[in-house]
């Protein structure tokens, strides 16, 4: 009778200890996405028990207790017991991720045998493929600094940033501020994606024109009664955006109040005078500096005609002695 009572009490104490035990995993329990080639570390903390046990895919069993300490290995993971006392056991599982663990399960529990009273947590692995960057953007943020931004990558360990063929930075981030050192002109930018095996798996490149704004100005006289001024940007794919655009035409715009041409690039002036010369200046500014184009255009006099009766032996039609119409003057 005493033996039966002792066994019942012992079973009750074991059940009580098991019910008070806790098992925590980091990363958290559940589905975990991992990248090929990266080193994955899982930490298991067991409280209120004297055993910490790992089981991979219900096959390999690794455990630590007061007697079995240190570390142990399987084909895919290295297991270590980091901490052991009367209250807590902390163990880690570390492995290099490969496609072999895709869809597999790693479990940590507080008992060596897999029984119903075991407290357990588990992780399901999904191995992701390596994807290089798919987007690259370059912009000037000051007269000597470029902002380089890239995106679209997954499972990339680092990025090599090359300027004009020279590696200027290796980073795990997704952007870089690059100081040009005052240099201007054409700048070749290439960002290389490097996976967790250290291999280059893809890149994107672009050419950026680190210059003042490039444009043309055309001035046209229409019917001797108006001036048309057209501003045309020379197309360049990547360059600093204009911050301001100013147009001044002598005698038509006040020098202290130039016209804004940042969004409007075609202007018509009708208050012109025949015989007058009009000077124009266009200034477009970006972070690099200002580009200026100027020129002049003269309004010709209207045609003068003479009646046939005033000219001997003339045809019966009017004879123009000077011509007008459209006159085009390009900027200097």
TrEMBL record:
The keyword Signal applies. Keywords: Signal. It comes from the Eukaryota. This is Ig-like domain-containing protein. The keyword Signal applies. Residues 1-19 form the signal peptide.
């Amino acid at each position: 009778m005493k033996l039966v009572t002792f066994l019942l009490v012992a079973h009750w104490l074991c059940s009580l200890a098991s019910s008070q035990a806790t098992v925590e995993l980091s990363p958290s329990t559940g589905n975990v996405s991992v990248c090929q080639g990266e080193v994955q570390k899982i930490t298991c903390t067991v409280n209120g028990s004297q055993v910490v046990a790992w089981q991979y895919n219900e096959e390999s069993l690794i455990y630590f207790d007061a007697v079995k300490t240190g570390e142990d290995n399987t084909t895919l993971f290295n297991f270590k017991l980091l901490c052991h006392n009367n209250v807590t056991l902390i163990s880690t599982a570390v492995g290099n991720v490969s496609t072999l663990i895709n869809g597999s399960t790693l479990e940590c529990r507080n008992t060596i045998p897999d029984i119903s009273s075991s407290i357990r947590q588990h992780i399901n692995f999904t191995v992701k493929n390596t994807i290089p960057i798919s987007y690259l953007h370059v912009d000037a943020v000051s007269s000597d600094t470029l902002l380089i931004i890239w995106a679209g990558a997954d499972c990339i360990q680092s990025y090599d940033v090359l300027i004009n063929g020279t590696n200027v930075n290796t980073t795990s981030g997704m952007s870089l501020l690059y100081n040009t050192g005052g240099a201007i002109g054409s700048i070749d930018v290439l960002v290389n994606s490097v996976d967790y095996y250290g291999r280059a798996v893809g890149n994107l490149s672009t050419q950026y024109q680190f210059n003042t704004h490039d444009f043309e100005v055309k001035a046209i006289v229409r019917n001797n009664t108006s001036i048309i001024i057209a501003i045309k940007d020379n197309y360049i794919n990547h360059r600093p955006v204009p911050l301001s655009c100013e147009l001044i035409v002598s005698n038509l715009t006040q020098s202290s109040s130039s016209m804004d041409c940042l969004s409007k690039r075609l202007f018509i002036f009708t208050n012109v005078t025949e015989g007058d010369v009009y000077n124009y200046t266009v200034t477009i500014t970006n972070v690099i500096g200002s580009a200026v184009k100027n020129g002049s255009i003269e309004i010709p006099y209207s045609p003068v005609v003479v009646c046939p009766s005033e000219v001997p032996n003339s045809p019966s039609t009017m004879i123009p002695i000077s011509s007008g119409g459209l006159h085009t003057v390009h900027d200097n």
